[in-house]
Amino acid sequence: MKASRVAVIGGGIGGLTAAGLLAKEGHAVTLFESGPTLGGKAQAVMVEGLTLDTGPTLLTLPALVRGTFEQLGALDLLPPFTELEPQCTYHFKDGCGFTAYKDLERMADSAAELRPVERKGVHSFYAEAAAIWRAAGEPYLEAPFEGMAGFMARVARRGIGAMLAGMKMDTLHALAAKHFQTHHLRQYVGRFATYAGGSPYASSAAFALIPHIEHAYGVHHVRGGIGALVEALGQAVRRLGVTVHLDTRAGFERITEGYRVEPVAEVFDSVVVNADPLASLRRESEPLSLSGFVLLLEVEGRTAVPHHAVMFGGDYRKEFDELFAGQLATDPTVYVCNPSATDSSMAPPGRTGLFVMVNAPAMPLEEGRAEQARRDWESNAERVREQMFEKLVRHYPALKGRVRVVGQRSPVDLAARGAPGGSIYGFLPHGRFGPFRRPRIRGGTPGLFFAGGGTHPGGGVPLVMLSGRFAAQMASAHLREGA
Question: How far is CA 320 from CA 35, 284, 290, 329, 387, in A?
Answer without folding.
Answer: 32, 22, 10, 8, 17
